[in-house]
Design goal:
Layout (H helix, E strand, L loop, with lengths): L22 E6 L4 E7 L5 E2 L12 E2 L7 H17 L2 H5 L7 E7 L10 H14 L8 E5 L7 H12 L3 E5 L5 H8 L5 H14 L2 E6 L2 E2 L6 H14 L6 E5 L13 E2 L3 H12 L5 E4 L1
Length: 284
């Protein structure tokens, strides 16, 4: 039986809690229960470098070669323990003992794995084998930067056909702010194009982290540029925005620049986003 050494909390998303390579449980404040993470980047490699990232020893790169047989063994065994064992009672707090989703997330960009579409198919199959239906969606948490690649589109399309969702990271609306926050040079028009493509393949939520940088909250012009990206992608094609703040400390050198926004500040930002006709869910 698989047992993490510490109980789950919303502030601890340690990928090693279950002692597995590719699979880890977390309490997700945005999902509202236990999320079963699928980590295709156990090498801590990502093509972005987000200032708020909680992954220690983050390096630039892509996912390593994935052992699909090991992934199947780990995910299948863990789901069996959750569904047929007493894992939730032993390790999740009362009120959070529900499997909310399977999520391709982890220590880097999951779509950088060469076998990303095969991993999606595997997750769909194992969800069905465990007796879980579409009420336990499979989610992809992604920066969306690789969605122009055919194999990534294949995986995202399969996710949509299985009733899944994409949580697509958009934290800013100018190239300068993206470089500062996400550590990449991206043009807003490209982000909008990628976001629109994702929404055409699978139901897509925008996932946005907002905070103070050197004490200053997002400015009015920065928020307007961010909203321009969502508008260019097509507001009517999006499920909405998942707006969240800093819940766990950054492990990056930029951490000293970051401080959390108050809950009322996030709500005020959400109100501005809702003016565009978007559903907004706020997680301080």
């Amino acid at each position: 039986m698989i047992s993490p050494v510490r109980p789950l909390t919303i502030r601890n998303h340690d990928r090693d809690l279950a002692g597995l390579t590719y699979v880890y449980p977390v309490l997700s404040r945005r999902a509202g229960g236990v999320s079963i993470g699928i980590n295709l980047n156990p090498n801590n490699a990502c093509n972005w470098h987000c200032a708020y990232c909680q992954v220690p020893d983050l390096v630039r790169g892509k996912a390593p070669v994935i052992d699909l047989a090991q992934l199947e063994q780990e995910l299948g065994g863990f789901l069996d323990d959750l569904v047929h064992g007493d894992w939730l009672q032993r390790h999740a707090p009362e009120g959070m003992r529900t499997i909310r989703d399977l999520a391709f997330s982890g220590n880097g960009e999951p779509t950088s794995a060469a076998v990303f579409p095969e991993a999606v198919e595997l997750a769909v199959r194992l969800r069905e084998r465990a007796g879980l239906g579409r009420e336990v969606p499979i989610r992809l948490i992604t920066n969306g930067s690789l969605i122009a690649q055919a194999h990534v589109q294949q995986g995202v399309r399969a996710l949509g056909e299985a009733g899944g969702e994409v949580w697509f990271k958009v934290d800013a609306g100018t190239a300068e702010a993206m470089a500062r926050i996400n550590g990449v040079r991206m043009e807003p028009a490209v982000v909008a194009k990628h976001l629109a493509l994702s929404a055409s393949l699978c139901p897509t939520w925008v996932q946005t982290c907002m905070f103070r940088w050197d004490g200053a909250p997002p400015s009015g012009s920065e928020l307007a540029a961010y909203l321009d990206v969502l508008t260019a992608a097509g507001v009517d094609t999006l499920q909405g925005v998942l707006l969240y703040g800093l819940a766990r400390p950054s492990m990056q050198v930029e951490a000293s620049h970051l401080t959390a926004l108050a809950a009322e500040e996030l709500e005020a930002l959400a109100a501005r986003i809702r003016e565009k006709g978007l559903t907004v869910r706020v997680s301080p």
